[in-house]
């Protein structure tokens, strides 16, 4: 058996499925997906057995959008031809599915190596058997390349064997320009985007190359007569390229990428891919001792997070399901900036920068949206595809099967503050002044300009933001949502800080930027006034933020009375009653507490969490992670651990809803956030990091790896001795504050702070 076909032996590094459940096969395609930030390949079985129970593989290409339905005009992420398809015939009879066959199948996601492996035994109608081992990967070192290896052993000699390797779904909705034996080029119906795929296949039997018996465009077939103990190995390399303009030639790029891979050979492709994954793990590893389930959940989360980003492409971002499925049409939400960017900022700043450059490239679309709605500045699309235009559908089918109006595209405006928040966090975490001057400042200023025109002064000189949707999407067309208004105020204040910084440190840059934006001192003074007078809903007497104006007068519903329900609470109560109640869909004020804890004076953080957590129905996969971060920071580590486990169960436990539309990448980012910003208690400051660790009782230790301002830092928190060990592995000396005590870190020593 080739080493490449042997999975990692450590169970903490693998996700395994033994047996086969056809009803869950589409969900398995998401869970076992492989991705490199450009190509995403769902982890369904490549061997085609026939019958309706077979789930087809899908390959998604980042940024490959088309608008096939002109009536709706909504761009969707397009699936490419299925390059993994294989069919095996024994004595002229295909492999068939039989009851009980599934027990001989095993599917393994090798997270350490970023590879999907399978081991199986199949029979044809005459009970002739074949043993199969497969390997699939999307190269992390050469993102255009994907690899398939299939090793097969026919159990009997003297059997006529036919192996067919083909590409399915060549009519995938894209328009073909040319389809040759080993090269295809397609273009999108509604844009200049083009796709090219090149392929190279070979079959070796007992180590000798065997020429194909029949060939046609993207179809190869071999026929031979077996002998006992004979081993065949199919090797398939494919290269996939995307071009966004008519003058770019994706075919040449595909040929070139495939040529490089062929020079390496499949073993060289595997070696380079494994080395790239080893590097990513060194930079992002999180190790938990004492809780095997949490360790596997974090590894699963980091596997998908590391496979979702592409630092080499500034024109794409990470969709709500990454590249593991096409729910939400492959659109980008606030999920990326709030739930994913912190991971990339602190483990992969090159990827974080590229993701924020996507928001810069779509800034003109955000400006156009704000102008259409009568405001200044930049209002980002709630759902974004490739060019920044608003892509949220206007209507959808509700849980009761009725058509409902979707108002998020017009009213869920906190997205602009969310993007600004991510820009500031990136600069805080990296010190990338070039990004701030060239890109970040413009985003911060234009989003602040939007909020300063959006918040209107009314009676008593207070500014209000009316007619919005906050993170709690159960309540629409509301006024003065606390999350929106406080984030808007924060956005304006950070923009003013950046204006002052540029004026002082880079006056020529400020002069150029302010001149280009026609931004004058009188407008900045207006921004200060708005930030001072904006309504936040905070009551200093009770310490509570009112989620929005009138929220406290709504019906109180005890969600504990509905414990054990299997559907969202708005389905149980009905849409109208839910809107008239205090039931919250997902973290709203609690999300504000997670992002801007300094906005909660004294013990008001505890007060607000205690008030809103029982009112949350967690109707979004994003919600529990935010509650987990806050609970951990407030010292309720066992509640935080429950939120952690419930979040991990969304994609890893079969007791939850099917995930055939893709993994919940923001929820996976949330697991890392709970561990690092919750249990480790990390927070970012201008010139230092601080920690306030609070581990769950079951966790013996937690070790994290971080990158901060060109430094690499490894931290280990031990429960038994209540100690923090910090190692600066690379970079200039730095300051780390642990529970209020200062540690000076250098590369020559590893200080340990103990309270034991």
Automatic annotation (TrEMBL):
Keywords associated with the record: Glycosyltransferase, Transferase
A Gene Ontology biological process term: carbohydrate metabolic process
Residue ranges of every copy of the Glycoside hydrolase family 65 N-terminal domain listed in the record: 18-243
Short name of any one Pfam family annotated for the protein: Glyco_hydro_65m
Domain Glycoside hydrolase family 65 central catalytic: 299-672
Transferase found in the keyword field: yes
Top-tier EC class: transferase
Record EC number: 2.4.1.230
Residues noted as binding substrate in the record, renumbered to the chain: 334-335, 585-586
Active-site residue numbers: 473 (proton donor)
UniProt cross-references to InterPro entries, sorted A to Z: 6-hairpin_glycosidase_sf, 6hp_glycosidase-like_sf, Gal_mutarotase_sf_dom, GH65_N, Glyco_hydro_65_C, Glyco_hydro_65_M, Glyco_hydro_65_N, Malt_Pase/Glycosyl_Hdrlase
Keyword Transcription belongs to the record: no
Glycoside hydrolase family 65 C-terminal domain: residues covered: 683-744
Molecular functions per Gene Ontology: carbohydrate binding; hydrolase activity, hydrolyzing O-glycosyl compounds; kojibiose phosphorylase activity
Matching SUPFAM superfamilies: Galactose mutarotase-like, Six-hairpin glycosidases
Family named by the database record: Belongs to the glycosyl hydrolase 65 family.
Protein name, UniProt field: Kojibiose phosphorylase
Species, as recorded: Caballeronia humi
């Amino acid at each position: 058996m080739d080493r490449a076909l042997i999975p990692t032996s450590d169970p903490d590094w693998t996700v395994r499925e033994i047996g086969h459940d056809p009803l869950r096969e589409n969900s398995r395609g998401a869970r076992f997906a492989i991705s490199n930030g450009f190509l995403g390949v769902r982890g369904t079985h490549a061997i085609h057995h026939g019958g309706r129970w077979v789930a087809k593989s899908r390959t998604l290409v980042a940024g490959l959008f088309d608008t096939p339905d002109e009536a709706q005009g909504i761009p969707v992420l397009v699936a490419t031809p299925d390059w993994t398809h294989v069919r095996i015939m024994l004595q002229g009879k295909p492999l068939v599915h039989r009851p009980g066959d599934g027990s001989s199948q095993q599917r393994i996601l090798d997270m350490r190596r970023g590879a999907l492996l399978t081991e199986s035994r199949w029979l044809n109608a005459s009970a002739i058997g074949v043993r199969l081992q497969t390997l699939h990967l999307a190269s992390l070192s050469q993102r255009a390349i994907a690899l398939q290896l299939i090793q097969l052993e026919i159990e009997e000699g003297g059997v006529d064997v036919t192996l067919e390797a083909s590409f399915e779904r060549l009519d995938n909705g894209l328009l073909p320009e040319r389809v040759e034996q080993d090269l295809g080029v397609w273009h999108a119906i509604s844009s200049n985007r083009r796709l090219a795929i090149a392929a190279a296949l070979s079959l070796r039997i007992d180590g000798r190359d065997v020429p194909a018996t029949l060939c046609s465009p993207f179809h190869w077939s071999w026929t031979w007569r077996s002998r006992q103990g004979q081993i065949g190995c199919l090797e398939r390399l494919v290269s996939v390229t995307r071009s966004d303009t008519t003058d770019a030639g994706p075919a040449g790029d595909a040929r070139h990428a495939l040529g490089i891979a062929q020079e390496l050979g499949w073993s060289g492709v595997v070696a380079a891919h494994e080395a790239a994954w080893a590097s990513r793990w060194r930079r992002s590893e999180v190790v938990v001792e004492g809780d095997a389930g949490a360790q596997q959940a974090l590894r699963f989360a980091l596997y998908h997070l590391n496979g979702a980003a592409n630092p080499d492409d500034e024109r794409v971002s990470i969709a709500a399901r990454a590249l593991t499925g096409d729910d939400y049409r492959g659109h980008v939400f606030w999920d990326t900036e709030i739930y994913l960017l912190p991971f990339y900022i602190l483990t992969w700043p090159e990827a974080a920068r590229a993701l924020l450059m996507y928001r810069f490239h779509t800034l003109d679309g955000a400006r156009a949206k704000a102008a259409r709605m009568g405001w200044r500045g930049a209002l980002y699309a709630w759902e974004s595809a490739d060019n920044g235009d608003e892509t949220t559908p206007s209507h959808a089918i509700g849980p009761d099967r009725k058509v409902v109006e979707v108002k998020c595209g017009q009213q869920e405006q906190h997205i602009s503050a969310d993007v600004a928040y991510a820009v500031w966090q990136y600069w805080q975490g990296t010190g990338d002044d070039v990004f701030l001057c060239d890109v970040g400042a413009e985003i911060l200023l234009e989003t602040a300009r939007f909020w300063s025109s959006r918040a209107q002064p009314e009676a008593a000189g207070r500014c209000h933001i009316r007619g919005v949707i906050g993170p709690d999407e159960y309540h629409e067309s509301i006024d003065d949502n606390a999350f929106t208004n406080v984030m808007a105020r924060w956005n304006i204040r950070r923009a003013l800080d950046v204006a002052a910084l540029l004026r002082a440190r880079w006056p020529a840059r400020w002069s150029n930027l302010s001149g280009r934006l026609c931004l004058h001192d009188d407008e900045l003074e207006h921004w200060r006034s708005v930030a001072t007078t904006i309504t936040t809903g905070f009551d200093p007497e009770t310490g509570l933020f009112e989620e929005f104006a009138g929220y406290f007068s709504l019906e109180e519903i005890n969600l504990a009375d509905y414990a054990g329900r299997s559907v969202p609470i708005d389905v149980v109560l009905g849409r109208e009653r839910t809107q008239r109640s205090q039931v919250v869909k997902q973290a709203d004020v609690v999300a504000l507490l997670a992002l801007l804890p300094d906005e909660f004076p004294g013990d008001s953080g505890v007060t607000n969490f205690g008030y809103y957590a029982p009112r949350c129905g967690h109707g979004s996969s994003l919600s529990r992670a935010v509650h987990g971060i806050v609970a951990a920071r407030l010292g309720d580590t066992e509640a935080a651990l429950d939120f952690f486990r419930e979040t991990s169960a969304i994609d890893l436990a079969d007791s939850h809803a099917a995930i055939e539309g893709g993994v919940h990448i923001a929820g996976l980012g949330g697991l890392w956030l709970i561990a690092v910003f919750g249990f480790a208690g990390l927070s970012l400051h201008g010139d230092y990091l601080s920690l306030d660790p609070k581990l769950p009782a079951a966790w013996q230790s937690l070790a994290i790896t971080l990158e901060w301002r060109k430094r690499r830092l490894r931290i280990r928190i031990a429960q038994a001795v209540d100690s923090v060990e910090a190692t600066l592995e690379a970079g200039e000396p730095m300051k780390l504050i642990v529970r209020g005590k200062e540690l000076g870190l250098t590369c020559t020593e590893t200080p340990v702070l103990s309270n034991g």
